[in-house]
Amino acid sequence: MVMRRGVAAILISAAAFGLMPVFASFAYRTGMSVTTLLMLRFAIASALFLGWLGVRGRLGRLTGRQWATLALLGGGMYAAQSLLYFTAVQRISPALAVLLLYLYPALVSVLSAVVERTRMSWTVAGPILVSLAGLTLVVGRLDTGLDVPGLLAATGAAVAYALYIIVGSRVSASLSPSVTTAYLSMFATGSFALLGLASGGLDLGFAPAGWVWVTAVALVSTVLAIALFFVGATTLGPVRASILSMLEPVVTVLATWLLLGGTLTWQQLAGGTVVLAGALWGILASSARGTSPAAEKTAVQASS
């Protein structure tokens, strides 16, 4: 029964994460900017996370170094990853954006080997080669009308997320995942507020329906999704949780098709399958070295 609850928690979490780019697409249709959406997303999420920790008396005292680390991770690295990913969702199909994002497990495998100064074995190079082969199929010919900046933003989001996981798993190990997530969300809120004010991109003049979609992004695809991931990962362990979390891009592809009318070609679907195969290989290869992306993700979880 406990295992079943763990599996259910991870699958619901993955589905909630998978719906996020679709919710974002609806939010953009109300006139909401990327910066505004992200600022509101993290503001709502951080208020709930910090409030919950405060009620339970689990906020704790952070050292100056921990404050600086969380500011770097949340206000810098994770904010950059989120900005790239949500920009990609605005410019290209959410299904295509999430498939490109899932290059990150293979990248984590390679970066882990570089950081740990281990030999570039086939189990390290293989996942990235498979994922790149899938990427070639997903992207296809660039003269077929695909938005190149959108493709670059999605790929950049995968690279940024892999770097964030590698760095975050090493510098935030002394804090619990729930505390880390709460403060990361808080610092991300500050970054997007400053970015929006500096660039003029912070505008609350969108249509009222936008509040429905930004609330869905914050509550369903952030707070609920992260909380359930913690529950499932604790029960099942990081490797199983990571494998089950690969339901996320499947949900995004199906939701894009059903709710947005978006389509992917058979070549892109085949490429997406190859990308996910590379992601699975990267997860298993990393776990064999004791550095599963899911274990690292749990330590710094805020997901896409």
Automatic annotation (TrEMBL):
UniProt domain EamA: residue ranges: 5-139, 149-280
Protein name: DMT family transporter
Keyword vocabulary terms for this entry: Membrane, Transmembrane, Transmembrane helix
Similarity comment: family membership: Belongs to the EamA transporter family.
Domain of life: Bacteria
InterPro entries cross-referenced by the UniProt entry: EamA_dom, EmrE-like
Membrane-spanning residues: 34-55, 67-86, 92-115, 122-142, 148-167, 179-198, 210-231, 243-260, 266-284
